[in-house]
Amino acid sequence: MASPFRPFQRSYNYLYRTAHEKPVMFYSVVLGVIGPVMTVVIPPIRQSLGYVPPPAIPSSYPLPNRPRRPISGYEDE
């Protein structure tokens, strides 16, 4: 009877051999898999450690609460 862990052992052996024979391809795949996983895992961890996101940057300049003066000077001749 075959062991239920045989497919995993073959996968482990393949990854082990690939890491030694083609390390660039192996680590490229590892980093490619870790990236999307980090987008799901990291934000809850940061929040549990007390991280508070900074306030949003204003998208417009606040206008002063006074009447506007007409421009006169160097550029209005």
TrEMBL record:
InterPro entries: Nuo9.5. Residues 55-77 are annotated as: Disordered. The chain crosses the membrane at residues 24-45. Keywords: Membrane, Transmembrane, Transmembrane helix. It comes from the Eukaryota. This is NADH-ubiquinone oxidoreductase 9.5 kDa subunit. It comes from Lentinula guzmanii. The lineage of its organism: Eukaryota, Fungi, Dikarya, Basidiomycota, Agaricomycotina.
